[in-house]
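Researcher: Structure for this, please.
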Amino acid sequence: MIRARRICVTAVAVLAALAGSPGPVQAQQQPDTGTLSASDENGLPPGWRIDGEGAARELVWRAAKHVPMGDARVEFRAGERLLGVPQPAKDGRTFRLNLAEATAKGLTELQVTAGGRRLDVSDDDQGKASRVSPKQSAALPANSVDPGKPGSYRTVSGEYELDPVRLPGYRAPIEMRAEVVAPKGATGARPLALFLHGRHSTCYKPGAEDDVTGEWPCPDGYKSIPSYRGYERDQQLLASQGYVTVSISANGINAQDAEADDAGAQARSSLVRQHLAHWADWTARPNTAPAAVRQGAKADLSRVLLVGHSRGGEGVNRAAMDSLYPPPAAQDGYRGPVRWKVRGTVLIGPTIFGQNPVADVPSVTLLPGCDGDVSDLQGEVYTDGTRGISRGGALHSSVYMVGANHNYFNSEWTPGQAEAPAWDDFWKDEERPDPVCELGTATRLTADQQHKAGATYIAAAARLFLAGDDRVRPLLDGSGKRAPSADPARVLTHAVGGRRAGGFLPDGPVKVTGARLCEAIDPDPAVSCLPPETEGSSPHFAWWETERETGRRAVDLKWSAPGTAARITPAKPLSLAGSKKLALRVFVPPNTTGTKLDVSVTDAAGRRADLGRVRVDGLPGSERTSSYWAREVRVPLTAATRAGLDLKHVKSLDITPRSGSGKAWLMDAWGWAPGTPAVKAAALPRVDVGRTVVKEGDSGTLTYRIPVRVSGHGSGQVRVYVLDPDSGAATEKLVTVKPGSDTVAVPVEVKGDTTFGYDVQHDIAVKAVRGAVVGAHRGGITVENDDPEPVITLTPVADRVSEGETLKWRLSLAEPAAVDIWQPVRVLPVTDGAELSTKDVDPQWLMDYAGDVPDPERPLSRANLWVWTNIPAGSTSADFDVVTIQDQLAEPTESLRLALTDDDAEPLPDRPVLTGTVLDRS
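Model: Predicted structure, token format:
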């Protein structure tokens, strides 16, 4: 029998035992706060327990305080491995994960994360904030045009509400409500910008300070939170410039997307396209439009910009995809024709759980440097993840806004401006203020400054993608210009696509000398790009579904003296013909300045040209920010032309540090030329993974196939990760797909039995590599247990002993189970005679089982002895013992009472309470 070290190991040790360790593990009875206590000594997370019965058992974590409803997905992890996505309870503090998703994997180092941020530890546990003062660089030069200036049109506003719609997988219907802001008196059809808010609380109680919920429809006495009205200032700016705008409500999805494999991406896409279909109808038949639509200019559905905030960003990305490559009908909530053309997307602090950007639709992604919700800034994948997928002509821009948080882009999520309770999502530490993101620091933006800057860059995207004004491109493509309307915000950009050519990509077949080719996602510190002790993180290395990924790499340069070149040599020479400059995306540690790098290229004939020197400064950052973000720097190719290099056949790129010592990471390098090319979407195959739920049965073996649909046109490559249900580890393979093919064939054998076990998920995850798009990226076969949980009995083994001997009881099953069975027992107060005290038992036993000490002496039942005992898979029993000690005091006969309990520590009503007796030896 193996004992737990401390009471606070309830979650970690219990679940470690679920992976195979026998014996009892101690858990404290819940105190009044509803959370389990934890010891600082072992550093294990507080607030965990096992709940439910039989196949419905769950791993439960309860936060010490309310966790605001946000866009980042709350995830349970074992170390760096994803266990699953728990379901939130209405109280905003409790999260539950079915043990079918958890117990099959080897569990240690339990964590709760959201957007890369730990939720289950305090700031004290996470360490001190960086003491390095953030560095602010000089302001960038102003661009020739400023899209943040209001236009000449008067604007009109109004709202419409249509009949709600039903979406697949959602029990309650979804509202069709929107706010329209349009130019008044504009001639001709005007481009349309549609806004979709992110995941936020859905309802609030008027008059209450913090009473918000995530329910839908809203309960009696509560009002709907009007998140869709939070972009009115952005809409007013665009409308004054001649754009029709509409911002739609999605509270019904926010309240129900926790159960969706894709966190609601497909549902949000369906909702967007439902609204666009109505706008197409109203354009064709204006007299049928609501008054809010009729009073403004006519919309031009051939020029549509989709703007999405947080999960809304992932939703509009999927809507752009679905408009080009139709999704499976069974998963889609819109079945009609596509009567619009999406010219671009703006994604504000977005999620991208599927890591499936649309390569042939231009995009601008706003990355808030002080995002406390989607704090890993995973939206960088909307830029990085498009490289090599399709033709590469669509511009994909990342816009890093220093000092911006997640919520303040929406005025209805901003304190002092919102109708409902609102908050600053960047969490505050009173004792150790963050040097970058604390309110009042030089780098942190006010709400109005942030919203104004956000509106300016939304308008820049509209002007480039819808109006075709290339003069705003330098604000978005890494050219190092600023929009004065966004001042004092410090905004930095880089991009891929557009008129970039060639491409030194660490992700592909490449040889690197003088530096290290590192892996973005790998648990091995020897190969990963950022070591585990790194303070802060990189948006370029945001986690996905697996603990290790193939094909996401960077070049890691580290030097102690200047002069040693890092050489990057692709498998085949690249063409930089037609390019004016070489653009490199490079990042250095935050708060560093003056990193100097010389850049040179060599052609296939061995001719070498020194192109020039670049300087790279780090972003302002702390350990709580994702500031390892690449700056775009450029050197002219004129030296290569003068030296007679064959720019059609460039063999290698050299980067030579000229600073005394330092670190730098190269993400990629491209030939660059000004201009924005016209974009034509390629005809690509689309891959969607579904889910099939089956019963295990009582006998025999059946083989099922994970449902994978390949539609569209042409052929492409995807990488398929098969997730082992026992270990959680992934095996991967590169697969060529084309419509109607069954190349993504993953069989799952299901063996029937009559032994109790938990549900098992056999999942795969799919990511596009080249010439393909992926819609629903994860799915599989869920095998449901159909056998009853065996009944546990508690019987005495040694229930009458003398001081110094051990009391013992046995928990027994009539027959073994296929999984570990956990049963809590609790020491209850005695009802007759003297009770065994904390000084009558072995002090180490008390510490191991209760996390407590003998003094002050008190009845043993007051030591919160609530013990989870494990009966390992294949076994039929486990023992619970109480180790007593002999003393020199004359005492009466003492006893304790022991009972099986439910998961709330209440004795089971249909089971006997047993008594253990200890006789005095003195």
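Researcher: Any notable elements?
Model: The CA atoms of residues 1 and 485 lie 69 Å apart. The first helix runs from residue 10 to 18.
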